[in-house]
Amino acid sequence: MTADVRIFGTVISTYTRIVEITCQEAGLSHETIPTPAHAPKNRHPFGKVPVVEVDGLELYESVSIVHYLDNSHNSGALQPNDPAARAVMDRWIAIANNYLFPLFEHGLVMPWIMHNYMGAELDRAKIDRALPNISRALAFCDAEIANDGAWTNGDFDLANIFLYCVLRGVQLTPQGGVGIAQCPHLSAWMAVTEHRDSIRATRWESEPD
Length: 209
Description:
Elements: E1 5-9, H1 14-26, E2 30-34, E3 51-54, E4 57-60, H2 62-73, H3 83-118, H4 124-148, H5 158-171, H6 174-181, H7 184-193, H8 197-201
Parallel strand pairs: 1-2
Antiparallel strand pairs: 1-3, 3-4
């Protein structure tokens, strides 16, 4: 049987997983076709992943993709009806994409991926330079949850998906795992969220049990 959604992206990818989780939440069957960023067959105009085929459409940019999937196939269940709550959701998605992901990915996650999977020497200098800012970002998230719940103050929505995937990559690194463990509100939310069915169904093969 042909999957409802075809996802072209790297297998160990924050944004590929965001789309996979959204598919799970919407009850859509999906197939991930391993496609490196900047590969000739990747049809994203700026060489990013994922690209998605669904309903005869070709979509790219994860925010656009997940909004389409949720609106068209999930009755918008992953988005609050209240405009103020939706604004909070959108704000946290923007924070995840524009500030947290670039900091975490380039300063910590990617050096470990290159070391563990590509055999490159671990760039400890890059990690050391990034760690103070990473620690501040994690502390900010923890304080915001303690203050008013931040993205966790409501039903499971798209912000939860984006933040979990961005933070999970950090948590799987030695330094990031320690950093998140030192943030009690953040680590408690991660511990609860990891048991959600859509999260468990999309675990990376490299994730520990």
